[in-house]
Structures are given as structure tokens and as C-alpha cells.
Amino acid sequence: MRNERSFYLFFVITACISTLFFGGYYLNAGIPELYIPIFSAFALFAIYGVLCFLRFVSLLWLFRISITTTLAAIFHQIYFTGGIQSHALVGLVTPTLLAFFYKPVSDRHIFMVVSVACLISMFPLSNTGYARNLLPSDSMSVHALMCAIFIFAMISIYTLLFRRALIVKNKELGKSMNELKKTTQKLVQSEKMASLGVLSAGVAHEINNPLNFIQNGVEALSKKIREDHKDKEKELEPLFKIVKEGINRATKIVKSLSHFSRKVPGMNEQCNIKDIIENCLLILRNKIKHKVKVITDFSSPDQKVKGNEGRLHQAVMNIIVNAEQAIKSRGTIKISTIRKGDFLDIIIEDDGEGIPKENISKINDPFFTTKAPGEGTGLGLFITYSIIHEHNGRIDVISSVGLGTTFTISLPI
Amino acid sequence: MKDRPVILYVDDEETNLLLFRMAFENGREVLLANSPNEGLIKLTENRERITAVISDMHMPKMNGVQFVNEARKELNTIPYFILSGYFYDDEIDLALKEKKILKFFTKPFDKAEIEGYLNETNS
């Protein structure tokens, strides 16, 4: 808006100088019918300038009355110099009227056409004017040029002003559009996570209580049998074991759902990514040492991100476990960290069997798994995804079947 | 010889109460209450004897933390625990930070874990 105002002021100053100039010219030529209205126009432009400066009238209306005043002044000149008889008048009237009423919404080039049309029509108009011998003939071309430049400048400024306003408005619109899109996406995601949280908390409670009945009921039962029926103990032991295994599995799955309940303990810990990766590798060492060679490269000097250490452990662990499971016989897992701007990238690369194209889009879905029942819940990567999301980070996956998979976790520092 | 420690367990589900008593009555006296209000009454009646209180979290009328807040007005010298089928949440987090509750246990409960805490605090 500030820029539009200064454009207008520039326009008014140009108009004042022009009218002063034209007025002086006609005064010098001794034609009161011309210099009186032109000097009045000068006074009007001066008033518009003051109004604009004081912000009494809106810019759009200031511009409209300025254009009207300019047109009145020009037509007055044309009428008195005899230009009204020229066929070229149409060439001036039509485009200027168009410029006044046309709203520059889609086609900004129209103004350029308009101003050029005005410019061209000025010469024959002025020439006709001299036929009435009102003006000295030796200054004929100077006068024609002056008129032409004046009209050209006026319409160009008009175009620039509105074009600029349009561009600014468009930019603002585009920006808020993008913001809206982002917010909607975020909202949808958080809404999803929230309803998942409410659902999983409810389900967990409803399942945990009966699990409590079973676990502790069986516990009491087995104690009773140990005490009263020693002879049956051996026979029943495997059955108790199966029941306990069932309870353990169910408990584990329900516990893993707790990650979707939005209430998570502190997100303000300083987490050292290098330590987290090393801890995960330590925990997994026995499981992987015979099959996988692990290469680590912690080249980034700054390994700290803000977040929840436990959750990040879990996120990294899930990906390393997946990498290990993707390697069927022998293979290598390469883990590296690189700082990229305000982000720390954790890259976990395996040379395992890879993820088929049709599954790539599904790997973040809850309960999607290609593992045998009981081996995987299908929640691992989904949990990782939501943990990284909580930390305002992102995960990228590149995979090709037979060659391996690369997970890149980017976390803000 | 010292008296057997007395613990109070509050839960709105009868089955949980029964199981809890069966699991912990060895070497302890377990008082049961099936609502926070009953819990408060039992606490008042036995305030000289009770050495620890364990409560469920989600119960009608008053949740576990609210119950602990009320109970602490009556008896502030003993440890309080929450045993819940729900997840860790902000309310529990705050209660733990303010040391209103000593520990948050989840169902299905791990007898050894709770036993450990009780032994530590009840001698």
C-alpha cells in the first residue's frame, strides 16, 4: 500500500509539472481559453496531492478523479486547438476511456496497447489543431510531442500502479493459500493422531483390565497347583507357559499403542544421536553380529537434537531392526549422520532384499507387515514415523528390490 | 515383632480387587475399596495402620490422582501409587513430578515390580 501511495504521488507531481508546463506554453502564446483551464487543472492536481498526503480520500478514488481531470484538460485542449475535427480523435478517446473503466484483472498488456494508441493518435490531433492557427506554427512538433509524452506517461503510470497492486495481492493470496494448505495438512495429521490416541487409550484400558484378570488369575492358579497338585505340575507347565506367552504378546501390542496417545513425557531433552545409535547397536549386537557387518560414520561434529531420548531410541531401533530383518543371509548396514543446514540427517542403509514398489507407500501404515503372524505387529515403522513427526522431523525412504533400502531421518537441531 | 504392613487398594472393578488381594496378601494385610469414597472412609478408619495406598486411575466420580489428593489431606506420610490400564498421561506426569504419587504402574500388573516398591517403602 505504501508503494501504491508513492506511485500516486509520483503521478500527481508529473501531472502538476505537465499542467504548469502546458499552462506556461499557452500563456506565452496568449490564449486564455487554454491557459486558464490548464492552470485550474494544475491547482486541482495540487489539491489531490495534498489529499493523498493527508490520506483523506481512498487511493482508488483519488486516482479516478485525477484521470477525469486529466482527460477533461486534454479534451479541452483538443477542442480549442481544433483537434476535435480530426478522425484521429477516436484513437484517443476510446483507449483512454477504456483505461479508465477497465479493471486490470487478467490482461496487463492492454494498458500498453492503450498508451501506444493514445501516443500515435496525438500527432494527427495536434496537426489538425494547427490548422485553426491558434498556436504558432513553428512550435507545432514540440507541442505534439509534449501532448504525446504526457498521455503516454499518464497511462503507463496507471498501468504500473495497478499491475503492482495486482502482483502484491496475488503474492499475498498465494502465500496465504500455501499456509492454509500446510495448516490443513497438519490439522488432518494431528487430528488423525489424536483420534488414534483416544481410540488406542480406550482400547488399551479395556484390554488391559481383562489381561490383568487373566495374568494374575493364571498366576494364582499355577501357584495353587504347585501347592496342591504337585503330580500335575509337569503336565500343566507347558500350558501355563503358552497362556503367559499369549498374555505377554497381547500386553506388548497394547503397550506399543501408547505411543499414539498424544500425551508423551518431556520433549525437551538434549539427545545425542551418536549415543542413541550406539545404544541401539549394543542392544542388538547379539542378534546381528553373526549376520550383519555394521559400519558407522558419525562425521557431523554436532550430534545433538532436542526431543525425547526414549522415543528417539525407539524410532532408530525400529529402523535398524527392519534393516537387519531385510538382510536374509549376510549383509552390511551402514549408519551415518550428516548435518544439513538446521537439520541432522541420520542415514541407515542396508543391502537387504529391499521393499517392492507397491509396498513403499504402505510401510508407514499401521498394521502393515510382510512378516509372519507373531513376528511383527506392523506398527514398527508407523511408530517411528509418528515419533519423528512429533520431533518435527521427516523420514525418506529409497529402496530397490534386491539392492537394499536407505532410510533418512531428518531431525531439526 | 512388628505388625504386618497394611496396604489399601482402590479399584472400581471387583475382579481387580480380588486378584490384587490374592497376589499381595502373603505377608500383608490388604484392605480393599471399590470406590474412591469407600477408599477415603477405609483410610480414615485405619489411618494408624495403613502403610501404603495403591489406586486405580479411571474410576467414576473421582480419578486416581484426585483420590490421592483427597487422601493426602487425611494421611500425608505414606507412599501412594497408581495402577492403571490407561497410558501415562499429563495428569500422572504432574502428580509424579509433584511427588504426590511415588510410581505409576500399568495393568496387567507385574507382581514383582509392585512387591519391590512396597518392600522398599514398607520395610
Summary tags:
heterodimer, A: 413 residues, alpha+beta, Helix Hairpins, Heat Shock Protein 90, five-stranded mixed beta sheet, two-stranded antiparallel ribbon, 7 strands, B: 123 residues, alpha/beta, Rossmann fold, five-stranded parallel beta sheet, 5 strands, 42% helix, 20% strand
Describe the protein's architecture and organization.
The complex is a heterodimer of chains A (413) and B (123). With 413 residues, chain A is α+β, with helices and mostly antiparallel strands. Chain A has 11 helices and 7 strands. Chain A has helices at 2-29, 32-54, 59-81, 89-101, 109-130, 140-228, 233-257, 273-288, 309-326, 357-360, 380-390, and strands spanning 269-272, 292-298, 304-307, 331-340, 343-350, 394-400, 404-412. In chain A, a hairpin with a 2-residue loop joins β4 and β5 (343-350). In chain A, α4 (89-101) runs antiparallel to α5 (109-130) and α5 packs antiparallel against α6. The mean pLDDT of chain A is 78. Chain B is of the alpha/beta class and 123 residues long. Chain B has a single domain (6-122), classed as Rossmann fold (3-Layer(aba) Sandwich). Chain B contains 5 helices and 5 strands; from the N terminus they run βαβαβαβαβα. Chain B has helices at residues 14-24, 36-45, 64-74, 90-97, 111-122, and strands at 6-10, 29-33, 50-55, 80-84, 103-106. Chain B has a 5-stranded parallel sheet with strand order 2-1-3-4-5, with helices on both faces. In chain B, α3 links the parallel β3 (50-55) and β4 (80-84). In chain B, α2 (36-45) packs parallel to α3. The A-B interface holds A 201, 204-209, 211-217, 219-220, 247, 251, 255, 258, 261, 263, 265 and B 13, 15-16, 19-20, 22-23, 58, 84-90, 93, 106-109, 111.
